Amino acid sequence: MSSEVRFTDFKSDKQPTWCPGCGDFGTMNGMMKALAETGNDPDNTFVCAGIGCSGKIGTYMHSYALHGVHGRALPVGTGVKLANPDLEVMVAGGDGDGYSIGAGHFIHAVRRNVDMTYVVMDNRIYGLTKGQASPTSREDFETSTTPEGPKQPPVNPLALALAAGGTFIAQSFSSDAQRHTEIVKRAVEHDGFGFVNVYSPCVTFNDVDTYDYFRDSIVDLDDEDHDPSDRDAAKEKILDADKEYQGVIYEDENSVPYSDLHGLDANMSEIPDGAPEDAMDLVREFY
Amino acid sequence: MAEDLNWAIGGEAGDGIDSTGKIFAQALSRAGRHVFTSKDFASRIRGGYTAYKIRTSTDRVQSVVDRLDILVALTQRTIDENVDELHDGSVVIYDGERSWDAEIPEGVVGVDVPLKSLAEDAGGAIMRNVVALGAACEIASFSIENLDEALAKRFSSKGEKLVENNKQAARLGQEYVQEHYAEDIPEYSLEETDEDYVLLNGDEAIGMGAIAAGCRFYAGYPITPATDVMEYLTGRIDQYGGHVVQAEDELSAINMALGAARSGARAMTATSGPGIDLMTETFGLVATSETPLVICDVMRSGPSTGMPTKQEQGDLNMALYGGHGEVPRFVLAPTTIAECFHKTVEAFNLAEKYQLPVYLVSDLAMAVTEQTFRPEEFDMDEVEVERGNVVDEDDIDQYLDEQDRFQPHYDAADGVSPRAFPGTEGGAHMSTGLEHNELGRRTEDTEERVKQVDKRNRKVETAQREEAWDYREYGDADADTLVISWGSNEGAMVEAMEYLDDEGVDVRFISVPYIFPRPDLTDAVEAAEEVIVVECNEQGQFADLLERDTLTRLKRVNKYTGVRFKADELADDIKAELEAEVTA
């Protein structure tokens, strides 16, 4: 089936309720294209998300999907993938969902290195609750809950991922459709946890981190001769607070995903009709 | 009833109390004797009083009693903590060479054995507890050869030399008592039988039940007293293609288990009260998305951090009502260690047949207690795996809408929708914690909302009709007094009935393993003159439920000291409650 799959097969018949012009349209399109172009189809794909604008993605895509609770999409994806390694698992999050309420899960998902893809729609604001500061909001960004700015530095998700032992760390811009798709595709193809932070502008509540701002500021790592296998070079880019980079920042080519380390290759949905044949051995152990 | 013996070893945490007790329990079990153990322990790694108690008989023993016959005391505090249980003729084994002067209560026989010196003679001071075991064997007239197998089981991985040294240490203890105390010790005879018992605790029984039932994915976060479930499964579930993940927290654990369940695996998480609190948000999602999941709550004493190493049955209301909004869930509460196995198997079947979360509520008293059973009480041939309404490519058509979209929340007459595991062709669908329509898509439409709420509840009605929500019954069905309990109180109550019988109190006893749905006890309550509900909590949470069910005021015996009921004490409490009525 996979050879005939087009990215539109991943589209549901439900029209997104995102604001017109929202960066999430482009982010999602890139995810669907990446899935189709890597040979997946809706029946072997599982998409999970938490809460917020990003959380709606499972409704707009056609695949097996779970729209869960706030911040917990990564553990769900982990369970899905470990229980059935044949599935392609893609997790979507937002900057609030992923770096605030879900920050703990983020760090541990990175270090667990389960073979799945995590795409964060980072708009540097809480959109669905109408404009409060998010963990990636700028220090002086005025919002309804931070009238004088948060007065605390934004979270650097790429640095968190690198520190936690990330094996694939990338950033893209939702409006640069081709690059974004290509980067997500590489995350899908990566053996391990593929993390992509996507600049996905909020046209309604964020008038600072706009399309124009990103268009003007983005530096493509491909133009910089960046070697993603060089961890020190990656660190330098990631800690460079003055630049907005797009591209694959770090990839560990020797990454061994969790399932390989733990010898997990079975589809756990397949179980016998009764207890395993040698189950009485479990009892005899207690003699 | 055959004569029983109550033995204990106590000292400081870190003194090897637990493993010494376990070795003796195994020796008794291998000699064909029934064993029931209990533990006193504090929430710390080293230091602090800790004890391991064993009750043994040739008859089944299923409770602790207020009596200690032989006590191995490694510290004075061990004697002080147990002084009320010592009686005339009890024996306290202690090491007089140690720096403390043991204060032996009057009437109690002090047996001073140089545990440390003898252990050193056998090859190392670390074996002093084993010297004490040898001394205890002599005092109890229990053949020391029975210890050898248990010592081999415990130490063989560390080399044959160590096993031999330990056997020698035990014999030095035995000989010392023979030489110095032959005249003083009371007569016991720990008869042996030909039975081959297995010895296990409630957490292990839950883990074993999970594997037998086809559970392949477990995610959890360590917490007393549920951790043994995870430790049991680790290394064992792998042999069957399964996996255990130690998650970063309980929130993650339940979400991982949810994910695995949506992949089609039988999945479980286990925790204790504080962990259930953290899982409660996702619990609602599990229920609304109609995902089969077994959530095990091994209760401890609450609220908040409460008393982590103490017994209580205080989480019943949380299991029944926890979470915002209204969602159906089943609540099963095994009443014995063997039933921890059987109810775990049943929990998985019910979860999948009705596509909802099942709380499996156990408690600390069962979790840390080891008890002997005949192996056939865990009959693996009887385990049936019922996966419910799972559809594949061939039968998915009947659940597609007019646009060929699969309907995971199809409004079936019995409330049970089809499940399509990911990978099933044509079954791609969305599930969500938002209220949804049959397609799984968000809706706020009033009709759709009511339809889905009703559909979820209809599953419960179906289950109430089709499953046997029964109970276990003891004693005279026509007795004037009816005692009802749930959870781990069954063993103590069964034994309490013997004490009550001696006092001329005739009791019918009903032990209920289902909290929701639960059996209808109206007739039983109406038929009795006196009804007493026994539970380890202050509020009487189960009594409240039964009062609502039966519209009858019920008497209550509640214990919330952090210690389980003892059989003799429970008999006294019940008698007092009955007499209170007479004088009132």
Properties at a glance:
heterodimer; A: 287 residues; alpha/beta; 8-stranded mixed beta sheet; 32% helix; B: 584 residues; 7-stranded mixed beta sheet; 6-stranded mixed beta sheet; 18 helices; 21 strands; globular
Please explain how this structure is put together.
The complex is a heterodimer of chains A (287) and B (584). Chain A is built from eleven helices and eight strands. Chain A has helices spanning 23-37, 57-60, 73-83, 95-101, 103-112, 157-163, 177-189, 211-217, 231-238, 258-261, 280-284; strands at 45-49, 64-67, 88-94, 117-122, 168-173, 194-199, 218-220, 244-251. In chain A, helix 2 links the parallel strand 1 (45-49) and strand 2 (64-67). Chain B is α/β, with parallel strands linked by helices. Chain B is built from 18 helices and 21 strands. Chain B has helices spanning 17-30, 76-81, 115-122, 128-139, 145-155, 160-181, 202-212, 227-233, 250-262, 273-288, 316-321, 337-354, 364-367, 446-466, 490-502, 522-527, 541-550, 567-583, and strands spanning 5-12, 34-40, 49-57, 68-73, 86-94, 109-112, 198-201, 215-220, 243-246, 266-271, 293-299, 330-332, 357-363, 370-373, 430-432, 472-475, 481-486, 507-512, 514-516, 530-535, 555-558. In chain B, the strands form four sheets. Chain B has a seven-stranded mixed sheet with strand order 9-8-10-11-13-12-19, sandwiched between helices. In chain B, helix 3 packs across helix 6 (160-181). The radius of gyration of chain B is 26 Å and the shape is globular. At the A-B interface, strand 1, strand 2, helix 3, helix 5 and helix 11 of A face strand 7, helix 7, strand 8, helix 9 and helix 10 of B.
